[in-house]
Amino acid sequence: MTLTIEQRDRLLSVLPSYPKKATGRKRADLVKVFLSILWVLESGARWEDIDKRQYASYQTCHRYFQEWVKSGVFQESLLALTEELEDAGLLKLQEAFLDGCFVPAKRGAMRLGSRNEAKAAA
Hints:
Layout (H helix, E strand, L loop, with lengths): L4 H10 L15 H14 L14 H14 L1 H15 L27 H7 L1
């Protein structure tokens, strides 16, 4: 996925600015991090599957994703990028949803029994 210059500028206006670090590694490119996060969400891949040559490292992406979701920055970023599509009538965010039917149950999750057991439990 690539962004136009206008989309990149719009995204950078929403993403938080971090102070320049005096020592250590240089901060990751925030647009690259954002595109990495979108790739994971779109593909359904694990964070570890991010191609470090094309995107940012998976640890960096996951850390920023958690921070941005908690602070509301991620939602603002998506809204900023989808404004044009909504204005043109090509997208309605009220009708967007996530499909979680493929998510496997974690260990220790209740298993579904027969229909008779489910009725008896209710």
